[in-house]
Amino acid sequence: MPSLHLSRKAILFLRQAVIDFYAHQARSLPWRQKRSVYHTLISEMMLQQTQVKTVVPYFERWIRRFPDLESLAQADEVEVLGLWEGLGYYRRASALHEIAQIIRRQGHLPQTVGDWEKLPGIGRYTAAAIASFSQDTPVAVMDGNILRVLLRFGNIQRAFDGQAQALSYLRPLAERCLDSPRHALYNEGLMELGALICLPQHPQCLLCPLRSHCRAHLHATAESIPRFKIPSYRKASKARGLFFHRDRLLLSPMGIPSKPTALIWEFPEIPIPFSPKLLPPIFTGRRSIGLTRFTEKFHILKVDERTPIPSDGRWFSAAELKQIPLSGPHRRWLPKLREIVREEGGPSAPALSLQSGR
Ligand code: SF4
Questions:
Q1: 169 shares a domain with 71
Q2: Is the beta carbon of 167 within 6 A of some atom in ligand 1?
Q3: Which of 23, 111, 191, 322 is deepest in the core (most CB within 10 A)?
Q4: Domain ranges, residue 128
Q5: Is residue 297 part of a domain?
Q6: CB of 203 sitting under 6 A from ligand 1
Q7: Same domain? 192 vs 261
Q8: Which of 228, 261, 292 is the last residue of a domain?
Q9: Do residues 167 and 297 both lie within one domain?
Q10: pTM score, two decimals?
Q11: Which atom of ligand 1 lies closest to the CA of 149?
Q12: Distance from the alpha carbon of residue 335 to the mean position of ligand 1, in angstroms
């Protein structure tokens, strides 16, 4: 697929307008106060799939507890995951912990985009962002915001199979547009413009410093760009059990025990052969993981000799539950579950009388 072409004049205009915009309108964010490799690494990992306003308090709390790579490398993984609780995609937290330990063993920071990409959880975007923002490496950083701005600037209306295809289409242009001496300002400015002005819906073209040269603005097509072929979502459902026994509640590790998410806990799934014997669910929650949309139905289960207990389950008291990382949706649903269990006069309502968060 041939790449988008922009004239030299348009590229020079783009660079200057983006850098001026960043100089005057960039948000004051905690990881921008004192740029360092460590702050950039933490913020970029947290920002994957997560909005800035959600990340800010997590970042501040993280830096207070783990101010540098050494303190993170020495930390216990349970505490690392506990600080991440609620941000979702817990593999990012485990990857950060592992990265800190790898760098400590190697005795030096990765120096190139390729070196960063070899570390767990670091893809092309994150590697380029760390290298450009904190190691003065002139490399084009490409995320969804930058993609949207450039596709609109060039009025590219073709439909892409997905973001990966659009990124590879744009990469040659993004590299040509890069302002090498001021690459960090340009990269951050383009991302900021996409986050604040060139919004996915309702782009603020009248406030945009690029509008005089933006082809999508000139053709009134901005809202229809970028175009992606509709992904096919999969539906799935799960039955979850509220197992109570002597004021304790049973939880299972999320994912496969050998994987990093094993240290995040959830209400256990009920084995399929047992499902037909269940009482009706007391609560239904919905969550998405990747392209799968899950419906989760919660059932109260009294524990007796006929109840199949998940083999990987562990019993937790109310006090212990406050200390362990619980998956985001299950922590969010806890107040509702507590309310319903109380109303139903469940077998051990006190076990759910917990703080719903930290
Ligand atoms: S003029 Fe509008 S469409 Fe073009 S870059 Fe600016 S906000 Fe986006």
A1: yes
A2: no
A3: 191
A4: 8-228
A5: yes
A6: yes
A7: no
A8: 228
A9: no
A10: 0.73
A11: 5
A12: 43
Measured over the CA atoms of residue 34, residue 36, residue 42 and residue 44, the dihedral's sign is positive
140 CB within 6 A, ligand 1: no
CATH number of the domain that residue 315 is part of: 3.90.79.10
- Look up residue 269 and give its two tokens: 């799934």
195-249 tens-digit pLDDT:
999 999 999 999 999 999 999 999 999 999 999 987 778 898 888 888 877 778 8
The answer as to whether 117 is a domain residue is: yes
Write the single-letter amino acid at 253. Answer: P
pLDDT tens digit string along 284-326? 999 988 788 999 999 887 776 666 677 788 888 878 877 788 8
Of 228, 253, 286, which residue constitutes the final position of a domain?
228
| 244-247, Cβ contacts within 8 angstroms, sequence gap of 24 or more | 244/300, 244/301, 244/302, 244/303, 244/346, 244/347, 244/348, 244/351, 245/303, 245/315, 245/348, 246/348, 247/317, 247/318, 247/348, 247/350, 247/351
Indicate the number of domains in the chain: 2
Q: Are residues 13 and 161 in the same domain?
A: yes
Arithmetic mean of pLDDT, 28-41: 95
- In a domain, residue 358? The reply is no
With the most atoms of ligand 1 within 8 angstroms of its CB, the residue from 147, 153, 215, 227 to mutate is 153
Lowest mean pLDDT across 64-68, 116-120, 298-302, 340-344:
340-344
User: Ligand 1 center to residue 201 CA distance, Å?
Assistant: 11
169/192 same-domain check:
yes
> Which residues are part of the catalytic machinery?
44
At residue 341, the 3 state secondary structure works out as: helix
Q: Is 198 in the pocket of ligand 1 (CB under 6 A)?
A: yes
Looking up residue 187, the CATH number of its domain turns out to be 1.10.340.30
211 ligand 1 Cβ < 6 A: yes
What distance in angstroms lies between residue 223's CA and the mean position of ligand 1's atoms?
9
Mean pLDDT of 49-53: 91
